[in-house]
């Protein structure tokens, strides 16, 4: 097996773009996988090709290392989920204490399908942009969840899978700082212009931190991180 290869869960958002850059800096061969699961909009997925091309152009070694892209269809997840990410519904806090954007089982399925793909591709490292520092409380983003899942996948495939989460212990300001560290101003600009984090299908409003409605929890978190990072640079 190729221990110097990684499969990145790549949505087209800020976090997965930074994780892709992180993997390209560390692994000789990097492939990406995206998931269409019945999201209420495809704005994020629609940015993936632009981001991959942009990353490949930032550094010659990244261009050499960036391999195949894969898109997997998981429509049943959307049909099973009654959430604000799979329905035209208001984003609110629910009785469970979780926001209505939580899609139960999403990351568990994503990594399981990614592992099946990686197994066939001779890869054993999976990379995801999950974080439990600045996040919405999703239980499938927690480090314990994902490392337990990595163990279960390894046992279930009789192969030593690793789940890497480079953003797990940093906040959104730290994510912006990591982007600058990995690819300088060019990577930051690529993320601002071409990544999509907004929960709504808004690509018409440009902010300093990128495009989005400016009001949903994802936009608020991204904007807060940008402002904190900018303030830290000036201090």
Task: Describe the protein's architecture and organization.
This protein has 235 residues and is of the alpha/beta class. The protein has a single domain (5-197), classed as 3-Layer(aba) Sandwich (Rossmann fold), CATH 3.40.50. Helix content is 46%, strand content 13%. It is built from eight helices and seven strands. The chain has a five-stranded parallel β-sheet with strand order 3-2-1-4-5, sandwiched between helices. β1 (5-9), α1 (14-26) and β2 form a beta-alpha-beta unit. α2 (48-58) packs across α7 (172-194) and α5 (106-121) packs across α6 (143-157). It is globular.
For this entry, give a set of tags.
single chain, 235 residues, alpha/beta, Rossmann fold, five-stranded parallel beta sheet, two-stranded antiparallel sheet, 8 helices, globular
């Amino acid at each position: 097996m190729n221990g110097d290869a990684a499969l990145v869960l790549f949505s087209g958002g800020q976090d997965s773009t930074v994780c892709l850059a992180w993997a390209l800096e560390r692994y000789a061969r990097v492939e990406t996988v995206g998931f269409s699961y019945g999201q209420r909009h495809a704005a994020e997925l629609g940015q993936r090709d632009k981001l991959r091309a942009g990353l490949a152009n930032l550094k010659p070694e990244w261009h050499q290392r960036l391999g195949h892209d894969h898109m997997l269809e998981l429509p049943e997840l959307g049909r099973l989920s009654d959430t604000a990410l799979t329905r035209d519904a208001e984003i609110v806090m629910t009785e469970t204490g979780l926001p209505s954007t939580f899609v139960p089982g999403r990351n568990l399925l994503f990594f399981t399908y990614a592992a099946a793909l990686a197994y066939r591709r001779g890869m054993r490292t999976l990379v995801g942009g999950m974080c439990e520092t600045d996040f919405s409380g999703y239980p499938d983003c927690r480090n314990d969840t994902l490392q337990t899942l990595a163990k279960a996948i390894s046992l279930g495939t009789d192969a030593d899978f690793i789940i890497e989460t480079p953003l797990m212990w940093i906040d959104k300001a730290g994510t912006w700082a990591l982007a600058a560290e990995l690819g300088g101003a060019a990577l930051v600009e690529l993320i601002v212009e071409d990544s999509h984090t907004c929960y709504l299908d808004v690509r018409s409003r440009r902010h300093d931190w990128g495009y989005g409605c400016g009001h949903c929890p994802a936009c608020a978190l991204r904007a807060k991180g940008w402002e904190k990072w900018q303030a830290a640079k000036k201090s």
